[in-house]
Amino acid sequence: MKCIICTLDHDGSYGKTGKYCSKKCRYTCTEERNKKISLAHTGVKRAPFSEETKRRMSVAMTGIKRGPFTDEHRHNISVSLYGIKHPHQEGEKNPNFGGKYTHDPLVYTRICEAAKLRGQAWDENLKHQHSLKMHGESNWMRGKHHTEETKQKIRDKILSDFASGRRKLNKTMVSKPEKEIARLLSDMGHDIKMGVRVENRLYDIFVADKNIIVEFNGDYWHMNPQKYSSDSYNKACNMTALEIWKRDKEKIDIAIRNGYNVHCIWESDYKRIDDKKLFLREVLLKYEK
Q: What count of other Cβ atoms lies within 10 Å of the Cβ of residue 61?
């Protein structure tokens, strides 16, 4: 007798029909068999596994080590799941609802490292692709604005991320003049802290021993009143000069309300100063009690 799968001769001792030579051939999925299975299951909805079935599957898989996914396998899984919603894990049903696990900086770090190992790191190439995708009319937020409620939620989220350690101050945000001012003040023997947060606002330099916040305002980013009129438009900030001045005033008021002294230095004024250390010493003297 010949096996219909491997075509080898056999004595017919396996099974009742004698079609197969072994268990391996009996359960080998050929292309024809896969087609029959696919047709048989078309439109059929499988009932969810019972807890007992899940338990048996778990016991059966205990100790079995699965080989690592290949890049092709990961890509196929990603494509097959793209856009699929999982109602059974939406909202409070999601095990990580409200950041239950990822609020822990250690857990968040492990997740990020695991993503990198899977090839999911947010590298420069992906950033460029995303930038092209969100450019121009294809950007779904084009012409729209967040509501005040959404803006407050974003501020609160950023604040909680700083508090938990998930988000750190980006060193590239600190300008060269800010670094120079901080260095000069430190050389003068003062206790200096960069990027101090008060409520939901971030401030440039804090002279801790004098309780003074020093804000360095770039002429363009903060629309220096000596150079720009109130209706001048800042394309980078998508705001008028008047709106920027109002925003900066609110920021200063928050610091003062919390008991800090605030001194602002404009970029153009700072560039004209020859003896910067003397200038900073005079600034600190203004706030001596």
A: 9
Q: What is the pLDDT of residue 186?
A: 92
In degrees and rounded to multiples of 5, residue 195 shows phi and psi of 60, 50
Close Cβ partners of 4 (under 8 Å, ≥ 6 residues apart): 19, 20, 25
pTM above 0.70, yes or no: no
pLDDT per 10-residue tile (average), the chain, 289 residues: 83 82 80 76 73 82 68 69 65 73 72 66 74 79 84 80 65 78 92 87 91 92 92 85 94 93 93 92 85
Distance from the Cα of residue 173 to its chain's centroid: 17
* Closest to 166 in 3D by CA, of 89, 248, 110: 110
Handedness of CA 270, 274, 275, 279 (dihedral sign): negative
Residue 213 burial (CB < 10 Å; 0-12/13-18/19+)?
Answer: buried
CATH superfamily of 171-285: VSR Endonuclease (3.40.960.10)
Domain boundaries, the chain: 1-40, 108-129+146-167, 171-285
**CB neighbour list of residue 256: distance below 8 Å, 6 or more residues apart:** 262
Both tokens assigned to 1: 């007798």
